[in-house]
Amino acid sequence: MPAYKDKKTGKWYASFYYANWKGVREKKMKRGFETKKAALDWEREFLMQSSADLDMRFETFTEIYVADLKQRIRENTSLTKDSIICNKILPFFKDKKMNAITAKDVIKWQNELLAYRDENGKPYSKTYLKTMHNQLSAIFNHAMRYYDLKSNPAAKAGHIGEKEAGEMEFWTKEEYQKFAYAVMDKPMSFYAFEILYWCGIRVGELLALTPADFDFENRLLRINKSYQRIKGRDVITDPKTKKSIRTIKMPKFLCEEIDEYIKMLYGIKPNDRIFTVTKSFLHTEMKRGSKVAGVKRIKIHGLRHSHISHLIDLGFSAVAIADRVGHESIDITYRYAHLFPSKQVDMANKLDDERNDLDG
């Protein structure tokens, strides 16, 4: 593993041959190192990465991890992963050897996250703590599944944080109707919120909608894509999950409203987006409408919770609701369990009746 000094620049460079993933011999060169040691270190890391030798540094393996997943996940998901890895995980683990990281190391990292406070003295939210830990654990799981790492130290250390921490916020039908009346002065806002509340779709799904997605004759809305604003670009992606690709039956009044709205859009084509606003605009409108209507302020995603809670109140099952909103039924049961009517009283009464029949 030699390194060479460039006589013109005075800097060092690495130059060597290696076998690529096809087994073909290739030459690799990288210039600009300040020292011979830096050039040799880079060569050693590159060779370990190309052969997936887990004696490599954690930072080097994360490059493999990100490259492996790049084409398999949505761009905005990739950006979120990259941000957490670069800003929250690498500063602690980057120079440690992948196969030498222990549960004790992970616990020390977790304790740093738990002790963190921002300039206002606020800690990380429990949801974000769980997200950061899950990302670290995902890296080790990837190493176990595809590169023969023996165990996952993050799993041994145990998780921190909570999923969906905090109370779920939603509006009753009466609260939503007060809000809807308050935003009627801006048609685009009104119709956007009508779809969000009465269909329970996600914001990205809403912003991707086109006239071609609606079948007003049969009262159907097809959800098969999602809109994201990424680095100043409008990006249409697949929905969040396979379950998210679905067809929703719309109430008759909503069909009439959206048909009327689309006819108001001059020159609209079948595959043009009908809501050309941003998530930020909708956040601002939620704030404005809540204040005017005198109802508690909730997040936009709270409209999805509101739709689901309304369907539960109407007596629909978790399975039926899950099909409509693009969730797994187990998720509906788990996340909204406190909203479903309790069957415990009915059970106890039935047992009483049976005992009374026996005694009689």
What is the H/E order?
Answer: EEEHHHHHHHHHEEEEEHHHHHH
N-to-C terminal Cα separation, in Å?
93 Å
Whole-number mean pLDDT: 87
Query: Given the structure, what is the number of helices?
Result: 15
Detail the poorly predicted runs: none
Radius of gyration: 27 Å
Query: How many extended strands?
Result: 8
Q: Please state the structural category.
A: mainly alpha
* Largest sheet: spatial strand order: 1-2-3
Helix content: 40-55%
Structure description:
By secondary structure, the chain is mainly alpha-helical. 52% of the residues lie in helices and 11% in strands. It has 15 helices and eight strands. A hairpin with a 5-residue loop joins β2 (12-19) and β3 (25-33).
Architecture blueprint of SSEs:
Blueprint: E1 3-5, E2 12-19, E3 25-33, H1 36-51, H2 58-69, H3 75-93, H4 103-115, H5 126-147, H6 153-157, H7 173-182, H8 187-199, H9 203-207, E4 214-215, E5 220-223, E6 226-230, E7 233-237, E8 246-249, H10 252-264, H11 279-293, H12 301-313, H13 318-325, H14 329-335, H15 344-359
